[in-house]
Amino acid sequence: MIVLSERVHGLLLLSGAAVLLLSALLIGNGAINRWRAVVAVQSYHLAHLGSHDGEAGEHATAAAALLPDDAATALAAIDPAAPNATDELDLLARRVPARQRSLVQATMAFAAVLAGKAAENTIEGADATLLKHLAQLGRGEQAAFPILSQGDAPSMAIYSRTAQAHAQAAWNAGKADALRSSLAVLALLRPQHHEIAEIRAVLAAVTPECDKVRVLEAVSQINTNPTAWARRLAVLVPARAPLFLGLIPANQRSSEELQQLNLGGVDGETLQAAVERAITAPGDAVMVATFLRCVQENQLDLAAKLVDKAPAGIKRDLQIALAYQRGDFLTLATIDPKRTDLKPQNTAPIRQAGRLSFHLASLTGLTPQVGGLNLRIDGKPVAPERIKRWGSLVMVDHPGAGDLQLEVKMGDTLISAGPVKSSGGGR
Amino acid sequence: MPMIEWLKQLAFYGIAIAVAWAVIVYIPRFKRVAVPSDYSEISGIETVTDYALDASATLATLSLGDGISYQLADDGEHSVRLGWIAGLPGDLLLSDATGKLLVNGQAVAHGGTLPGPPFGPLVVPAGHFVVVTDTHLSDSLNFGPLPEIALRGKIGTLP
Predict the structure, then answer these.
(1) Mean pLDDT of the A379-408 span
(2) Is the dihedral of CA B39, B41, B45, B50 positive or negative?
(3) Which chain A residues are Cβ-neighbours of B93 within 8 angstroms?
(4) How far does the CA of residue A51 sit from the closest CA of chain B (Å)?
């Protein structure tokens, strides 16, 4: 048995105490650092939650400095979109405990996709699905936004970024259906987004189940340039265009928008009601747009009602347009006798097999549809029942031989008059 | 030193460590949280009183519908926010056209009718939870899924 002197024994105890004290100090320092890092990470998350990005960055850097080998603290300080993110994450993956490695690998794959590189196949589940979609978007390919399975929780950063990228691509492509799937995710994931009012408005607009009231509620929350957004939404969702165009102040609507608005009408409004509204509406634009809608729906009686009430400045043009639709040569000929383009003309009459025939049309190709055609042969009026018409062709049975005199009139307006030879025709 | 003395000292340190462990683990389960008089995010809640708070609760121990206390950015040390858990990591959430919130296909009992256009389906991200209140002023509808670090604890009895 070795007997130590009291002195040596004292030195050994002192050394042991020093080692224990040093260990205690190191453990205590580590614990304090860990506690400070946890507080810094908490502050980082809370600042991030409040959209205080600058403050969040400071907390993240502080947390990473205190605990550089922990994924929870180190990842907060690494921006996956940064150029050197992949290298930093690679180093981190070697330092962190094995149980945290999958988290770092998912972030590495995220950084790779953001950098336009292929993601490693080391990750699985929701994150892998989302990153695959994000990579597709990066290549300019379009695909449906992935619907994740219940129980397969993704990373918040990857989920949010993918939804945002998908929404941007769908917006650029003007695809309302594709927009809905990603905006419906973003609306809950990022309610503090600086454009959340716009996100919710677009989401409401592209959601068929959303009734008009909810859509208008959502759109009314847009404070930045609401008129421009109303125009964008009208283009994105044409079925709801009248709803959005109606939000544009009347003095800022373009003529095309006004026409579109009036053609679309108010929801549930009949054409009859639209005509009544147009008659009382100030200005000419509403009346013109409603007139065009009447013509488009072949409601010429309603169009005539508008013509009767039309202001003097547009009345003549509407009369001509209505007369054109009706094929009313009589009216066309009387509105402005000097306009040759409105005046009907007939081709040289032909006499063959006991029939006299010619074509009657205006220079613009309009054929007469409404009565008012008067023919006289050798000074005698031809009974209306003897006049047969197929489109522009006018035919009269006239079995007699020899040359004759033909006079063509629309109402009282003379179209042509002259001789017709007995064979082959011509004047 | 006789063996009995060593054993006595060992027992003393053992008991001290056990007491410390019990304090660290169990004391958080018996905290209380005071509700200020102007708190209006949950209808029917008794203000100017305090509620039992289990601060040891984690996302792994919580269930849908549990009453919780949570915090948001810029909250002071003593500010209180209360709500119900409406989504845990992996839960599938969506709201229908009537504003009803469905979690994993089931309607949730709290939160009433949700404002805004229908959202979802989406899966609650890892490490996050969705909380709802009656007014939705400071719940996940306005702040999104909250990170676990925003959880202060589970409230025993929330109206």
Answers:
(1) 85
(2) negative
(3) 188
(4) 9
Residues 6+ apart with CB under 8 A from A312: none
CA distance readout (Å), B109 to A35, B66, B101, B102: 38, 11, 9, 10
CA A134, CA A154: separation in Å to the nearest integer?
14
- Of B158, B157, B151, the closest CA to residue B70 belongs to B151
Closest CA to A194 of A222, A167, A219, A220: A222
Q: Do B122 and A190 touch (CB under 8 A)?
A: no
Q: Give the model confidence (pLDDT) of A199-249 as tens digits.
A: 999 999 999 988 888 888 888 888 888 889 999 999 999 888 878 887 887
**pLDDT tens digits for range A128-185:** 999 999 998 988 888 899 989 999 999 998 999 999 999 999 999 999 989 999 999 9
Where do we find the tokens 């053992």?
B14
According to DSSP H, which parts of A67-206 are helical?
A: 71-74, 85-95, 101-114, 125-138, 156-173, 176-189, 196-206
Residue A390 has which token pair? 């197929």
Q: Whole-angstrom Cα distance, residue B103 to residue B120?
A: 10
Query: Which residues lie closer than 8 Å to B97 by C-beta, 6 or more apart?
Result: A207, A209, A210, A211, B118
Tell me which chain B residue has its CA closest to the CA of residue A215.
Answer: B117
Cβ of residue A220 closer than 8 Å to a chain B Cβ: no
Contacts of B70 (CB under 8 A, 6+ apart): B81, B82, B83, B131, B146, B150, B151, B152
Question: Whole-model pTM above 0.80?
Answer: no
B79 and chain A in contact, CB less than 8 A: no
Q: Is the ipTM of this complex over 0.90?
A: no
What one-character DSSP code corresponds to residue B116?
S
Is residue A259 within 8 A of residue A274, CB to CB? The reply is no
Burial of A411: CB neighbours in 10 Å, binned 0-12, 13-18, 19+:
middle
Q: What is the DSSP string of A12-65?
A: HHHHHHHHHHHHHHHHHHHHHHHHHHHHHHHHHHHHHHTT-HHHHHHHHHHHHH
Say whether residue B126 is in contact with chain A using an 8 A CB cutoff: yes
Say how many Å lie between the first and final Cα of chain B, rounded. Answer: 61
Largest Cα–Cα distance in chain A? 162
Q: How far is CA B132 from CA A188, B52, B84, B148, in A?
A: 12, 19, 5, 15
- Please give the residue of chain B at the shortest CA–CA distance from A184: B119
Interface with chain B: mutation pick from A49, A145, A214, highest number of B CBs within 10 Å: A49
| Record: contact A188-B93, CB cut-off 8 A | yes
* Separation between Cα atoms, residue A279 and residue A262, nearest integer Å: 13
Q: Which helix (H) or strand (E) holds A326?
A: helix A312-326
